[in-house]
Amino acid sequence: MDKVGSWDSMRESVDFVRRYNENIQLNTGVQPAAFIHSYGCQQNVSDGEKMSGMLSAMGYDFCDSPNEADIVIYNTCAVRGNAEGKIYGNAGALKHVKARRPEMILALCGCMMQQAAVAEKIKKSYPYIDLVFGPSAMPALPKMIHEKIITGERVFTVIDETAEIAEDLPIKRDGKYKAWVPIMHGCNNFCTYCVVPFVRGRERSRDSKNILGEIKELAADGFKEITLLGQNVNSYKSGDTGFVELIRMINEIPGDFRVRFMTSHPKDCSRELIDAIAECGKICNHLHLPFQSGSDRILKLMNRGYTVESYLDIINYAREKIPDITFTSDVIVGFPGEEYSDVQKTIELIKKIRFQSLYTFIYSKRSGTKAAEMQDNVSDETKHEWFSELLEIQNNISREKFRELIGTHAVVLAELGAKSGEGYITGKNVSNVTVDFKGAEELAGKFVNVKITQALNWALLGEIE
Q: Which of 53, 122, 213, 342 would bridge 295 by S-S if both were Cys, CB 3.0 to 4.6 A apart?
């Protein structure tokens, strides 16, 4: 299978699997159920929603446990080593379930499966796994299930990661108020620590008309927060439309909703983008801008394409144009060749910028990347010490910034599931900070004006105004 094709080209397989499931339900009185779990980034979550949409069209219901499912799909991540470990563990645990119910279909997909060595390991060591496919092959899920049912054979499908973007897939979204909208796939940056270009391919942007049409439908359906996704959204380009033009067009779409985007790459984050955020009322005043290291020497080893000075320049310009903007970022500790003096430079940058929060990681070697071949003489113990020092400093900054917000006012998109206890509603303000407040469940999905009254370590508390 060397081409994916459109959703319409899957019609024969979709109809076959749906009839197959209808016969099972007729004979047993139980509708076949699917279980999907997506690991890793928001792009994977979005892919999981598309697979849910396809499975629903094929006549599957959904359940909360792989033990109860007729088809189990683990959507994998290749970015972090611990995510890979979880996949192998979960795949191993399914062996006994499959032994009791050999008719069930077990599938592994996503970025891990795009790696030839991983796919070969699954083929040899996990003979009970039925379907294995990479991200670009995901739209062909109906054909793969069809083939498995007909032949009983395992199906391994790895399609060229530069495949065209399938635009017409059905989507079963996880939420009712917040939606992910991928605007591009793949990455051209080849940071030396990152496997993404090898498993998701080079950059391909969706047609702006399709993006705008999807967002118009979401707004009409009452979605209140839309997050644009891409490995580097700043590189979006479709015809004459770049990312700045795209968000300005999105801002003109009628409706009461707000827009976020991630992830921005510092080397491509322009002043024009900052100007657009400042001028577009629907775009949130929050920028996730991964800097990874505060040392120019390490940034060069990482092939990040910017310097600390140029990073600070865009931060300072953003604060000049949007005084209430907040920043979050990613940091890697323990990159090959890093010394404590480099870590100190990272800490200096953190203290200077005072991020709202950081996503901090200890370097994880990924096979196939240039960093995996670099000499690394620092012990894991030392890396954990550096990590703890950096984390403590950032946690203190986050607590201080939370306390500064006491007495201020925020517009919060209310959601259920607050950690503060019974009677509380939760949500994010425009700066992407969690705010919990007491309120009725009927508020979920609505924008609520809240006054901040207290700062916790992990969130703010407030009261409805």
A: 342
